[in-house]
Amino acid sequence: MKKRITALLTGLAVSLALAACGSSASAASSAPAPSSQPASSVPASSAVSSQAASEENAPASSAASSAASSEAAAPETESAGGTLVVYYSATGNTEEAAGYIAELTGGDLFELTPVDDYSNDDLRWTDPESRVSTEHDAIVAGETVTVELTAVTPENWDSYDTVFIGYPIWWGEAAWPVDGFVTGNDFTGKTVIPFCTSSSSPLGESGTLLAEMAGTGDWQEGHRFSSGVSESDVQEWLDGLGL
Ligand SMILES: Cc1cc2nc3c(=O)[nH]c(=O)nc-3n(C[C@H](O)[C@H](O)[C@H](O)COP(=O)(O)O)c2cc1C
User: Fold this and answer.
1) Range 82-241 has CATH code 3.40.50.720
2) Fewer CB atoms < 10 Å away: N or C end of the chain?
3) Ligand 1 residue neighbourhood (C-beta within 6 Å)
């Protein structure tokens, strides 16, 4: 009899122990997952923004790969997006400005070079017999002066939607070696921004006259730099454009 009571008590003790284990396992599975942050500091509504914030803070390589994957997902289009800085420069001032614009915008440079380049003598604009003076006389007389260029259309022309075009001011107007570029290309769908350098003359109507000559493109007002243009002059102008 004593043995039966002992066996019954032992069985009861084992059952109680098993029941206790079962209930603690189910309590564990229903408990909130451990978090490194207190639950109260991460409201549900901030989940997306905190993910965005963690992406912002992600190392460059992971940000780049995320950008690359979204690029891969984007549909391929013919849309341009590139910036081109085209210029003619006889003595280097406009080239200086063009270089700063390209550097600061990440744009490509395209120099307009006449087949028959202008020598220093050709450029003596105070000499009535010089090449520029006789060409200018012809233009004033209503003749067309054509300066043949070594290349009129840049490679990948279609890939640019912003085109800066730079030139020196000659007798108050755009130096005519740019004319062949302006008349020889289709600017449809492109924003065109003229810029020039001069000793003292303003931009004047030079940009407007080029726009009329081109007949296509969304031509902006443009800007004149002094012959001694600096990078900060260009930076200030570009900042104002809000590109
Ligand atoms: C043929 C010729 C005509 C010029 N006419 C003017 C002018 O009308 N007004 C002016 O301020 N500067 C004039 N200049 C000075 C240039 O516009 C200035 O030096 C310019 O910065 C030159 O640019 P580049 O070095 O890119 O050729 C003239 C220069 C040349 C060679």
Assistant:
1) no
2) N
3) 89-95, 123, 125, 132, 168-172, 197-201, 227
**Residue 26 tokens, joined:** 């189910």
Helix intervals (H) in 173-226? 179-183, 206-214
Residue ID of nearest Cα to ligand 1 atom 20: 198
Ranges of each domain in the chain:
82-241
Q: What would the pLDDT profile of 30-77 be if each residue is shown by its tens digit?
A: 333 333 333 333 233 332 233 333 333 333 333 333 333 334 444 444
For residue 198, the ligand 1 atom closest to its alpha carbon is 17
Per residue in 71-96, is it b (16+ CB within 10 Å) or e — as a string?
eeeeeeeeebebbbbbbbbbeebbbb
Q: How confident is the model at residue 195 (pLDDT cuts 50, 70, 90)?
A: very high
Render pLDDT for 122-164 as a digit per residue (tens, 0 to 9). 999 999 999 999 999 999 999 999 999 999 999 999 999 999 9
Q: If you take atom 2 of ligand 1, which residue's CA is the nearest one?
A: 170
What is residue 62's predicted lDDT score, i.e. its pLDDT? 37
The pair of structure tokens assigned to 220 is 């902006």
CA-CA-CA-CA torsion for 108, 109, 112, 117, nearest 10 degrees?
Answer: -150
Pocket test of ligand 1: the residue of 89, 119, 227 to mutate, having most ligand atoms within 8 Å of its CB, is 227
